[in-house]
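tool_call: predict_structure(chain=1)
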Amino acid sequence: MKYGSLVLEKKEYVYIKSLLNVSEHTEEDKVQTSLDKFAEELKSAKILDEDEMLDDVVRLNTVVTITSGDDWKKTIQIVKPTEKDLKNNKISILTPIGIALFGYALNDVVHWDLPGGRKEVKILKVTQKEGEESFSTLI
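tool_result:
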């Protein structure tokens, strides 16, 4: 892990914690396993103010290109659950891959249980969406 632990912006951290509280009893085992692992990782996360955030960290609205070895390569955007749109590769933070990537940084390798089994996923590119309303102004 590039920065030694997850890195989250303070207001996103509060938002994610509230999502986890609401979602803590999901019926889907893979999602619940991911939520539990993520909640554990949050305990040691670095929480930063907006002006301290690093550009190469995956956060809400980030567009991220990932690969799993030679199996696949995909570009997705991590969004709030209400903004998910699979046709446009907008993936909810509450999906196993959204949870797996959140707070990690460029070139990090993440080992996570995804619907297709345990995968090693490498973050190849991180792009913060410019021109969109910042998350911190939404709450």
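agent: The longest strand covers residues 117-127. Proceeding to next step.
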